[in-house]
Amino acid sequence: IGRCLRREPVLIHGIGQNIRDWIHVSDHVRGIHQAIQYGQIGEVYNIGGGEKSEFANMEMAKTICDFVDEERHERIGTSRELITLTDNRPGNDRRYSMNTAKLQLKIGWKPTIKLKSGLRQTVKWYINNPIYCEKAR
């Protein structure tokens, strides 16, 4: 998001077909909190967005670019021109996926923020907090 807003190349490894399990930070933090509060010491609880939030990196990059264009009132597709393919990292996995069944069954946690609405919210946050983003960078 930051690179897109700064009009820098948005780097995508390989051809962008690697699949990741995406989750909004608020859902992730809530999952950690509930695992600490209600989980058993020594147990492992996976936190992820679930099967409906697994998308290829290229698809996510295009969605982010489009949301940035919408928020900046630019022609949709303008930011997609920033997408730049780069060499795949050695050992880069084709897919990362999380089985969150234990966390859902034993603790009752599940993600509540829909991926695209959460992503749009995150893009807006970056746009509305440029000083924080620059300091963090």
Descriptive report:
The strands form 2 sheets. A two-stranded parallel sheet has the order 1-4. The protein is built from 6 helices and 4 strands; from the N terminus they run αββαβαβααα. The model has no long low-confidence stretch (mean pLDDT 93). The N and C termini lie close together (12 Å). With 137 residues, the protein is mostly helical. It has helices spanning 2-5, 25-38, 57-71, 101-107, 115-128, 130-136; strands spanning 10-13, 19-21, 54-56, 83-86.
Summary keywords:
137 residues; mainly alpha; two-stranded parallel ribbon; two-stranded antiparallel sheet; 6 helices; 45% helix; 10% strand; globular
Question: Quick summary of this structure?
Answer:
By secondary structure, this protein is mainly alpha-helical.
Number of strands: 4
Strand order of the largest sheet: 1-4
Strand content: 5-15%
Number of helices: 6
Largest sheet: 2 strands, parallel
SSE order, one letter for each helix or strand: HEEHEHEHHH
User: For the terminal residues, how far apart are their CA atoms?
Assistant: 12 Å
How large is the radius of gyration?
Answer: 17 Å
**Fraction of helical residues:** 40-55%
Mean pLDDT: 93
Overall geometry: globular
**SS-based structural class?**
mainly alpha
List the uncertain runs: none
Topology:
Elements lengths: L1 H4 L4 E4 L5 E3 L3 H14 L15 E3 H15 L11 E4 L14 H7 L7 H14 L1 H7 L1
Parallel strand pairs: 1-4
Antiparallel strand pairs: 2-3
